[in-house]
Design brief:
Structural class: mainly alpha
Helix content: over 70%
Distance between the termini: 16 Å
Number of helices: 8
Order of helices and strands: HHHHHHHH
Mean pLDDT: 85
Largest sheet: none
Radius of gyration: 26 Å
């Protein structure tokens, strides 16, 4: 029953959402707009509570076992408690000075640091991708150079380079982006069908 009930709920919700889209009836639209769409915020609140509980459980386990980098778990719990305490009704809200201070001097600098570190990985990946070891890598390198220098003042070469860059962006680049979008869409549909039909069950903790 612990496995059949979640599968039945997911099948009913998925089947209702799928068939409602193809049944343009006012009762069907009413159920979808005024009943079904009320559930995502409720599920989101419970998912947030589950995430907070999981974060506390994992961090406390690291502290108790003295695992690697366990002092960071203390910082995580202190930050979580501070953000919740300063945002509680009656103490503060999302515009309270304490909340704004945490965002301005902790969250934003940490986010900027993470993206700064990510830029080095992107630069390393670009260096490896743009090395002209093969014909396709050479085409990629030449295309990237043309696109990057299209805004530079190149004298009589400005217009030809700009036209070539526009063609690269609007023809092969756009075709590749559309192919990726189509592939992602087909993947989403296939994954959704596997979940609705109960074929994909890894979200329940095991296959």
């Amino acid at each position: 029953m612990k496995r059949q009930l979640p599968l039945a709920i997911i099948f009913l919700c998925g089947a209702f959402t799928l068939f409602q889209y193809f049944i343009p009836h006012e009762q069907s639209e009413y159920l979808y707009e005024f009943v079904a769409l009320d559930w995502p915020p409720i599920i989101g609140v419970f998912a947030l509570m589950l995430g907070i509980f999981s974060l506390i459980r994992v961090s406390w386990g690291k502290i108790r076992r003295k695992s690697e980098n366990w002092p960071y778990a203390i910082v995580t719990l202190i930050g979580l408690a501070g953000m919740i305490a300063t945002g509680l009704p009656g103490i503060g809200d999302h515009n309270a000075p304490a909340v704004r201070w945490q965002f301005n001097y902790i969250v934003y600098p940490v986010s900027a640091t993470m993206f700064s570190i990510l830029s080095f990985f992107i630069a390393s990946a670009a260096y490896r991708a743009f090395r002209a070891r093969s014909f396709l890598a050479t085409v990629l390198l030449v295309s990237a150079v043309i696109v990057m220098i299209r805004f530079f003042p190149l004298g009589p070469l400005t217009d030809p380079v700009g036209t070539t860059a526009d063609w690269v962006l609007n023809v092969p680049n756009l075709a590749a982006k559309r192919a990726i979008v189509i592939g992602v869409g087909l993947g989403i549909v296939a994954t959704a069908l596997k979940i609705v039909l109960g074929i994909e069950r890894s979200y329940m903790g095991r296959d």
